Amino acid sequence: MKQVISKLLLSLLFCISFHSNAQSTYANPVEHMNAITKELSKVQADLWQYINAASHNKNMRKIEKRRLEIIETTKKSKDAIWKLSSYKGDATLKDAAVSYLKISHAVMTENYSKLVDMEEIAEQSYDAMEAYLMAKEMASDKLDTAGKALNIVYKEFAAKNNITLTEAENKTDEKLEMAGKVYKYYNTMYLIFFKSYKQEIYVMDALNKGDVSSLKQNGDALAKVAEEGLKTLDTIRSFNNDASLKQVCREVLTFYKNEAETKLSVFNDFLLKKGAVEKLQKSIESKSAAKRTEAEVEAYNKAIADYNDALKKFNTAVDAVNTSRSKLIDKWNESSGKFTDKHVPKD
Asked: Does pTM surpass 0.85?
């Protein structure tokens, strides 16, 4: 699964011009700001590396080492900033930076740790997948909120000390912002896709078990969720004029809708005739040949003929469904990869 990401830290790299002769432990407040920014930049760089890896990797456990590394980096930077002197007794910027890093440390330690475990069960149900993606967005939002709060204090500190801040272009910040937009869009599409994808699994499970009632119930549900998904797609625009992911999602949902409306009747007919044959066979075999009536034998032979005819149609339908599904899922996975690779910066 891919990631939902927000901006983690607003621009902290500034072109600074200073207009003051104030004295402090630092030669001027710019030195105080630079000392803090130096430590924060280390964390921001590590955050991007982790998010970039998580965004392009479907298995978060494989990048668990990076998460542990950023936890360590965050702790070291927090401790380093805590030991810095304040400027002329003003510790607001220092305290804000420490607060930001505490939140970052907690999010990476607690929230992202839970996400590793949640990912492993996310595929089990639509609700689990939705909860997983929501948890990722909540974790990202916490970092986003903390970063914005810190940025406000930066500007307030600059204003108090007669510092003019000209925000330089921050490439890392731009990458985080773009990644956030890309994955919010992707996850919207993925949940639409996944709901029908998962519902069809329930249909196939009922078919494999020979459960006619469950097949009907889950088949009707598949037709419904696929139709709802198609209607939802009509309300979603393409991403930066790229409609590739939306188009493939539409193709997949159209397949599921068609399967539910045309193929399940074939599956259902097969199960019914299979059940009829088995019932008559049991009855026939319970009697000796001498006690079997001509009508019973004729009914049994007709049931076998009907079953064989249904079996041919069943096999044809199953082969068609399996072939189409395989091609479409491959196309979805390929399109998803191309979509994120195209729009999410890699380095």
From this structure: no
